[in-house]
Amino acid sequence: MRRALAYLELLRPQQWVKNGFVLAGLLFGHGxxxxxxALAAATATAAFCLGAGAVYAFNDSRDAVADRQHxxxxxxxxxRGAVSQQEAGxxxxxxxxxxxxxxxxxxxxxxxxxxxYLVLNLAYxxxxxxxxxxxVVLIASGFMLRLLAGTAGIGxxxxxxxxACGFLLTLLLGFxxxxxxxxxxxxxxxxxRAVLGxxxxxxxxxxxxxxxxxxxxxxxxxxxxxxxxxxxxxxxxILTLPWVLLGTARYLFRxxxxxxxxxxxxxxxRDPVLGATALGWLATVLWVIG
Length: 290
Hints:
globular, 0% strand, 2 domains, 15 helices, Tetracycline Repressor, domain 2, mainly alpha
């Protein structure tokens, strides 16, 4: 039982909330009204959960030595010795295969997008994560593939404004994570993640500011676009913008003044204001377009 729990922990199910990006197309494309699209989106989301778990397991099998020197990562299953590196590699392969098989049930387009996601993360883990800026762009690209799987992959036309907004949001979160790591680890940062030695706080703050402003602007433009009003039958989606601005400001506040920002999932769970903002945004979206 303990070994099974260690395997599950290795797949990091607490991080699977990020795969909610797959469902964005279902929400904003009114796909929930069609049972077949809803089932395909749910299947694609589950497939990406398995694919993401495979990526986490493979990454941990590669980074076990470095993780043992990290204050938090040393508690991961491979780093603490609960699972061997070989077992983690096998689990990664099995999880990836199951994810691809499940994705194929949602459609071959979804399976192809998940395959691209796995290859992208393989390249990231094997070396591209050491290249500054490109490392964050690759992470953001992974989220873009999630959005595409939940839209084009299942037959929903994706909004270009929404895709741009999603990309800028994930760039923001990626640069914020690097900034949080740099602040927390200080002089030891480069020893735990090589690319951190090539970043500076000043550069990351500028990049975060640009991405935050761009994300808010593109979301605002999406809410007032003529095609958005035509799709939803209302121009009131702009009412959700205050939630986006509040959530962004609160996240940046926690990043700069509370030592947070490293893990968006944990921030949502730990900070009641941020969590309430996310729920308020979702409730307003459902009210406006439902």
